[in-house]
Amino acid sequence: MNSLQDRIAQFQRMTTEDPDNELGHFRLGQLYMEAGQYEAAAQSFRRTLELSPQFSKVFQLLGSCLLNLGEHDEAIEVLTEGYRVADQRGDKIPRDEMGKILTGLGVELPTAAPSDAARTDAPTGFRCQRPGCRAGAYAQQLPGPPIPDEIGQLIYARICADCWNEWFKGYSIKVINELRLDLSTDHGQAEYDKYMRGFFGFDELA
């Protein structure tokens, strides 16, 4: 298995070659955090939020980095905004984690404003559970499982068509190319599945 520094170098190359790759910036930030490089992690998470401002988990991680850096005022601002975003989206796990941090800092939890207030079309009734999904209550469910296995069923139940297409037609290709994955091998398939689960936020869902 690659060392932590090797993985950091991989995602540094990925984000340099494709600066708009939100998954690359997110994973790079996580790896920087694992290495205790909180300033670099915060920069990666800020870039992720520029690309995907509804990615609620990133607010939580950025706030934690800022607290480790002693930037308490900015951390409170980030966590407060992240709490609102997560509450609006129904992202319960990151919302509750940010709520615990804010309460521990003596900060009153905010009341989120209603989301999608300006829209006139009706919600679909299907809410995509991918962190960072922009569709919210207006997400369209896939017509069926996109993969004939257990993870395909999970994607069908929890992930909207737009997010699946974003992964399948975009980020999956980047992951295969940038990490030079051979999907005919067990290692290549395991790495591909790991990044797919991370993209859809399955590790964060209850």
List keywords for this structure.
206 residues, 9 helices, single chain, 0% strand, mainly alpha
Order of helices and strands: HHHHHHHHH
What is the chains' assembly state?
single chain
- What's the number of extended β-strand segments? 0
Task: Look at the helices and sheets and give the structural class.
Answer: mainly alpha
Kindly report the average pLDDT value.
85
Strand portion: under 5%
Query: Could you say which overall geometry the principal axes of the C-alpha atoms support?
Result: globular
Strand count, sense and barrel status of the largest sheet are: none
Count of separate DSSP helical elements: 9
CATH superfamily of the domain at 122-206: Fe(II) trafficking protein YggX
- Low-confidence runs of at least 5 consecutive residues: 116-120
Helix share, percent: 55-70%
CATH topology (fold) name of the domain at 122-206: YggX-like
Query: What's the architecture of the domain at 122-206, going by CATH?
Result: Orthogonal Bundle
Evaluate the radius of gyration. Answer: 17 Å
Report the span from N to C terminus. Answer: 28 Å
So what's the CATH class of the domain at 122-206?
A: Mainly Alpha
